[in-house]
Amino acid sequence: MKHAIFALSLIPAAAAADPITFAWTPNPQTPQVDVALADGYFEEAGLEVALVNFASGREAFEALLGGQVDIAFMAEFPAATGALTGQDFAIVADLTRYTGSRIIGNSDQSPLDSLSDLDGKRIGTTLGTNVDYFLSTALTEAGVSAEVINAAPGDLVPALVRGDVDAIVPFPTFYQGAKDALGARYLELRPGSYEPHYILAASPDMLARDADLTAFLGALVRADADVAADPAMAADRVSASLSGNVSVETLQGMWADMEFGTVLAPDLPELLASEAAWIVGQGVIRAEVPTTADIAAILAPGPLAAAAPEVVTLD
Fold it and tell me: What keywords appear on the UniProt entry (predicted)?
């Protein structure tokens, strides 16, 4: 498990005038949120945080754009779409980077030793999402042509088990299910061409509450240090928030592919610019292809830099 330990610049916080409405659902990717909630770090920062659950990060982002929440947790891909369509929001933190993106195969269908094994094969994924971007980028970089078949996230593993497709690129939450369903037939390939980032976006109204936002992010940076110092404790916190549905042992295995730490670094706007260019190239949105500098304009590093300047390394 990769961790970054950062020192926190402690900033006294007055009691917040209004609650911060935070679109976040318990998940394996953000242990610093679980620790901050369980150990009262938001309250100690003078904040009242009201959690609102959504089925997906995309729905949380839509709620943010609609003014229903102040801060939304999501993977980075919807932000690329939001930037292209001129939505009013800002990215204020990058909580976790996932290094385990993979293509999953069925040994009954085809070998999966390299991307070339996918040439001419049928690959299932969910079009218009970050896993579609991952697959498209990996195939293009390898010069491989395949038949990409659209399927809902929950239909991909059954399709691979039945042999309807030769490989799938699902969301990471389905990896373990694929391994369990396929057993000895399970194959995987990790091209290393895409690392999802799990980010926080803020509304314009929340950005105007800069002291509260700084205190909120400071509480997460404080929790980062706890996660790094005691990952077993952090896994206990996350497993409890998931009602025990994901065991501590399973979490620790998943975390081998996660880099935790609340940061803002140059790799995020670079990735978003690449995704935005891909979206335009797919004809999904008609827009000018943005530069990395254009995308960087949707990042608001000030509040995080005020809480912990050393974790903001944007150029």
Answer: Signal
Q: Which two tokens stand for residue 26?
A: 């318990």
Distance CA 98, CA 261 (A): 12
Domains contained in the chain, CATH given = 2-99+195-311 (3.40.190.10), 103-189 (3.40.190.10)
CA distance readout (Å), 118 to 147, 163, 306:
9, 15, 47
**What is the pTM (predicted TM-score) of this model?**
0.91
Amino acid identity, residue 288? E
Angle at the Cα of 1 (from 113 to 77), degrees rounded to 5?
A: 70
> 9-37, pLDDT tens digit by residue?
343 444 446 999 999 999 999 999 999 99
User: 193 near 199, Cβ under 8 Å?
Assistant: no
What CA–CA distance (Å, rounded) separates 251 from 313?
A: 29
DSSP, collapsed to helix, strand or coil, labels residue 279 as helix
Mean pLDDT for the stretch of residues 248-267 = 96
Kindly report the average pLDDT of the chain as a whole number. Answer: 94
Per-residue pLDDT, 315: 74
State how far the Cα of 84 lies from the Cα of 75, in Å rounded to an integer.
16
Q: How confident is the model at residue 124 (pLDDT cuts 50, 70, 90)?
A: very high
Rounded CA separation 200/299 (Å): 10
Determine phi and psi for 240, rounding to 5 degrees: -65, -40
What is the pLDDT, as a whole number, of residue 17? 60
Q: What pLDDT shows up at residue 7?
A: 38
d(CA 221, CA 252): 21
Enter the DSSP assignment of 108: T
